[in-house]
Amino acid sequence: MTAEPTLKPERPFFSSGPTAKHKGWSAANLKTESLGRSHRSALGKSRLKYAIDLSKEMLGVPDDYLVGIMPASDTGALECAMWTMLRPDRPATVAAWESFGNVWIQDAVRQLKLPKLTTLDADYGEIPDLASIPQDNDVVFTWNGTTSGAKIPDTEWLAAGREGVTINDATSAVFAMEMDWAKLDATTYSWQKVMGSEAQHGMLILSPKAVERIEEYEPEWPLPKLFRLKKGGKINTGIFEGATINTPSMLATEDYIDALEWAQAMGGRKAMFERADANAKLVKDWIEATPWLRNMVSDPAKQTNTGVCFVFQGDWYDSLSDEDKAGVPKKIVKLLEERDVGYDFNGYRDAPPSLRIWCGGTVEQEDLKRLLPWIEWAYETVKNG
Q1: How many CA atoms lie within 13 A of 171 on its CB side?
Q2: What one-character-per-residue DSSP string does 102-114 give?
Q3: 119 forms bridges with which residues in the sheet?
Q4: How far apart are CA 327 and CA 201, in angstroms?
Q5: Which of 18, 233, 238, 315 has an alpha carbon within 20 to 30 A of 154's alpha carbon?
Q6: Which ranges of the chain does DSSP label H, i.e. alpha helix?
Q7: Pairing label, strands 201-206, 66-71
Q8: Which residues, in sequence order, are CB contacts of 354 under 8 Å at separation 6+?
Q9: b vs e for 41-72, b when ≥16 Cβ sit within 10 Å of the residue's Cβ?
């Protein structure tokens, strides 16, 4: 029996969203001049625009793309893109391989009821045949599966200059993986993922091609106010300059700015990529060296560097009932949360019984090193209990 470890992570935050604040974060460091002020004031709009401009600079978004702050997190931003860009008279494909991608499929099937829709899906840990998607089709996809740990290995399946528009849910990928902006028309993410900021605000990034689609097309379905991007038949550029559609939280905005400035000081998105890569390698190497574990994603080229998901294997685990199998990760998480060793690292509720450790750039590698022996101890405790 492995002895209970003594060294605990200094920051036991391993949730896949909202994720860990960066080291050194303190509410006392946030600027508060915009609090209690109208978001329409010169000060409020300037802070919102600064968050937009800094996001665009940090992500290397092309100058002719628009970046805006949207309500309802990544979900609001992604559904806004779908509702305003997908057309009943055009072929569309929605590809999914985990929980949130399947939500976009249900939106397209049940809400938009697109008559020329094709859906592609795959089991957890796999990715469907993206190369089978016709280049004429509009396509909705998830760059990185937050609940499965499976990411697209490349963008070769998207031809340059393709006719269809691409709508990309990149919420657990931006700031951890480079985006191929030339092939992306609408890209969305939320502040609460890789940057470790507060929830409820999303980002919508539009290419000139996306703007053209929005301006030329008037959806036949009702659009709630929160999805209305046009004014007088043209894109409302004010939304992409800090005049948000509805009232944002200025406190959350200041928290996001703090995270962006921290990442910028660390070396920008490249440094964030490197931090996530190093963190994920540590965890994935440990999984490979642990006989009773395996990565949920078998193909290394498709394994994420953010929310690394892994499942159990071996004679003891395989002999359990389905109910008891589901209880193993829950018991491990409970043991470590009770000891303040690690929080919120159980697998997603719809995923196979698993654990999921967030490895994004706001997590310190030393904390991961300290967490892993505790998981080994907890596993043995559950097994022998």
Answers
A1: 29
A2: HHHHHIIIIIS--
A3: 94
A4: 34
A5: 18
A6: 42-59, 73-85, 99-106, 208-216, 250-266, 268-289, 315-318, 322-338, 365-384
A7: antiparallel
A8: 296, 309, 310, 311, 312, 329, 346, 347, 348
A9: eeebbebbeebbebbbebbebeeebbbbbbbb
Using CA atoms, how far apart are residues 347 and 333, in angstroms rounded to an integer? 10
Q: What angle do CA 124, 127, 130 make, to 5 degrees?
A: 155
Q: Is the pLDDT of residue 100 over 90?
A: no
Domains along the chain with CATH numbers: 27-264 (3.40.640.10), 268-384 (3.90.1150.10)
Instruction: Return the structure tokens found at 371.
Output: 């967490």
Buried b (16+ CB within 10 A) or exposed e, 322-352: eeebeebbebbbebbeeeebbbbbbbbeebb
Q: What is the DSSP string of 19-52?
A: -PPPTT--GGGS--TTTTS-TTSHHHHHHHHHHH
User: CA 14 to CA 343: how far, in whole Å?
Assistant: 6
Name the band, by pLDDT with cuts 50, 70 and 90, for residue 1.
Answer: confident
This model's pTM is above 0.85: yes
Give yes or no for a contact between 111 and 78, defined as CB atoms under 8 angstroms apart: no
* Distance between CA atoms of residues 219 and 215, nearest Å: 11
Omega within 30 of 0 (cis) for the link into 18 = yes
104 contacts 169 by C-beta, under 8 angstroms: yes
The per-residue pLDDT for range 9-54, each reduced to its tens digit, is 999 999 999 999 999 999 999 999 999 999 999 999 999 999 999 9
| Sole residue written with tokens 């809400």 | 111
Q: Return the structure tokens found at 8.
A: 């605990």
Q: What is the bridge-based pairing of β-strands 234-235 and 230-231?
A: antiparallel
Q: Which residue has the tokens 């509410």?
A: 27
Q: How far apart are CA 80 and CA 188, in angstroms?
A: 10
pLDDT tens column, 263-284? 999 999 999 999 999 999 999 9
Closest to 211 in 3D by CA, of 114, 66, 88:
66
The identity of residue 26, as a single letter, is S
Dihedral, CA atoms, 160, 60, 304, 163, nearest 10 degrees? -20
